[in-house]
Design goal:
Layout (H helix, E strand, L loop, with lengths): L14 E12 L2 E12 L3 E6 L5 H8 L5 E8 L2 E2 L5 H6 L2 E4 L11 H8 L11 H10 L1 H5 L10 H13 L5 E5 L7 H16 L9 E5 L3 H7 L2 E6 L2 E7 H5 L2 H8 L8
Parallel strand pairs: 3-8, 3-9, 6-7, 7-8
Antiparallel strand pairs: 1-2, 1-4, 4-5, 9-10
Helix pairs in contact: 3-6
C-alpha cells in the first residue's frame, strides 16, 4: 500500500485537538500517565503502540467516556475534559469504537437515521451527503433495509464509520477499523477514509481524524502525522513518512519494521 498523497499545498496545520498532561484512572488503575498529544487540523493522525499502551483509553478520555483525572483536553483551544459526553459529541466529534457500536436489530437505514442528530426522518437528511456515503460504502445501499446484525464484519465496520459521518463532523475518532478484515475490504476502507479526509465530493471542510491502528501498512497508507504510545505516554510524535522511512525507529518504538509487512 502506498502512502497517502499529501493534500495540494499541504503544510503542517495547527492542532484541532490537544491533550496536555492527561492522566486517566479507571478504578484503582492508573492508565494514562501524562499524555501530551497534538492532532493537526485536516489531517489523519495515527495513534500507534503495543497492546495495552493506552490508545483506546486516550480516545475514550477525549469523548468523556472515561474522565481525565488531571490535565487538559482542548478542542480548538476550548477545554472539554469536564464536559459530559453528549455535549462533547455536540461539538462535532464522532467516535467509532473498536466494537463498532451499531444496533444489530435495526436496519442499515435506521442505524444511519438514528446517528443523524438533526434529522427526525429520512427526508431530513442531506441527500447529497447520503449519496456520497453510500457511494463510499456500496454494500450499505445494497443492504439498506437489512438488519445490521446480519452484515459481515467488514460491512458492519463501514456502517459504523458511515454512522459517524452521516452529518459533517469536525473530528472523527476511530479505534482499529481494519481489525479482522480481509485485505480487499481493508483496501476499500483505506480509499473511503482518504475521501473522508479530503472532505468528500462536495468541497466540504476536510475532517480531522485520529485513528488507532495495529496494521502498520494501513498506518503508512493513511497517516499524515503519527504518535506512538507506550505505558500510558506518548513517546514519539512526528510525520508518518519519517517513521515509515526509519526502520531502526520502528524497531525501537514498535518492535517491528514496516518493511517486513510489505
Amino acid at each position: 500500500m502506498a502512502p497517502a498523497p499529501p493534500l495540494p499545498g499541504a503544510v503542517v496545520a495547527p492542532p484541532l485537538l490537544r491533550l496536555e498532561g492527561v492522566h486517566t484512572h479507571i478504578g484503582a488503575y492508573h492508565i494514562l500517565h501524562g499524555v501530551d498529544l497534538a492532532v493537526p487540523e485536516g489531517e489523519v493522525t495515527m495513534l500507534l503502540g503495543r497492546n495495552g499502551a493506552g490508545k483506546t483509553t486516550t480516545l475514550r478520555t477525549v469523548m468523556g467516556l472515561w474522565r481525565a483525572s488531571a490535565g487538559r483536553v482542548l478542542l480548538a483551544e476550548r477545554p472539554i475534559q469536564a464536559l459530559p459526553t453528549p455535549e462533547i459529541a455536540q461539538a462535532d466529534i464522532a467516535y467509532v469504537p473498536e466494537n463498532m457500536g451499531i444496533f444489530g436489530d435495526l436496519t442499515v437505514r435506521e442505524n444511519l437515521l438514528l446517528a443523524a442528530r438533526r434529522a427526525r426522518s429520512l427526508d431530513d437528511l442531506d441527500t447529497g451527503r447520503l449519496d456520497w456515503l453510500l457511494g463510499l460504502f456500496p454494500a450499505l445501499r445494497k443492504f439498506w433495509l437489512h438488519p445490521a446484525g446480519k452484515l459481515s464484519g467488514g460491512q458492519k465496520q463501514m456502517l459504523a464509520i458511515a454512522r459517524a459521518m452521516v452529518e459533517p463532523r469536525r473530528l472523527l475518532l476511530i479505534d482499529e477499523p481494519t481489525k479482522g478484515l480481509a485485505p480487499a475490504m481493508i483496501r476499500n476502507l483505506i480509499e473511503a477514509l482518504r475521501e473522508v479526509r479530503r472532505g468528500g465530493a462536495r468541497e466540504e471542510q476536510p475532517t480531522t481524524v485520529l485513528l488507532v491502528e495495529q496494521n502498520f501498512m494501513v498506518a503508512r497508507a493513511l497517516g499524515d502525522s503519527v504518535a506512538v504510545m507506550d505505558d500510558g505516554r506518548v513517546v514519539h510524535a512526528g510525520r508518518m513518512t519519517d517513521l515509515a522511512e526509519d526502520e531502526a525507529l520502528q524497531h525501537r518504538l514498535l518492535g517491528l519494521s514496516l518493511a517486513a509487512h510489505q
